[in-house]
Known about the structure:
Helix content is 31%, strand content 7%. By secondary structure, it is mainly alpha-helical. A hairpin with a 2-residue loop joins strand 2 (13-18) and strand 3.
Amino acid sequence: HKIAHRDVKPANLFVTQVSGKRTVKVLDFGIAKVLHDTSVTEALAAVTRQGPSAFTPRYGAPEQFNKQRGASGPWTDVFALALILVELTTGKRALDGDDPTQLYVAAADPTMRPTFRGRGLDVSDAVEAVITKALHVEPKYRYAEAGEFWDALTQAVGLSPEAARVSQPAVSSGKGKAPTSDDMATALFAEQVSLQVPSGPTSAPPEAHARTHPVESLKHDPP
């Protein structure tokens, strides 16, 4: 929708019911910017260089830490979503670091990308290529927006984007419950990713518990 959220993180992703259907809502557009032209160019996106630079370092893209790297925009949200996806599938932090400086180094180091393989998962070349592009240090080499990222990812695991948007995976949580977002994520990656789910409770990022109803995708039930 040509909106740059610029603070995508687990605490801002809520699983809820809309017209009886399970969906995810993105909250807190406090530092969002609207791009008024459909073409995503550096000149038009330069507007995002102005205004507040507040963001969550744990899910920050390199250009948010250092504006010399370029404008923030929908591609910035792609970076954050890719980090969240890596955390969802590994149960571990995507970026290593305890303060903004360390997190910037982790986000911007071209030799240490926090991809699936970079975090110890066994994935296909196609899936790794998608997450690598989504986490590219340079904004211009990432997917331009989240829809493009999602379409590439679903195609990489053998699903058409249309099917991925409407299908309900025929899986269960193992407890007789209706499929949850955990199950859907598992179904999406089951044939491509060897999920290394710990035997005990996982250490979900603390941001996932920041509000009353955090995104449930970050709560793993052992298979």
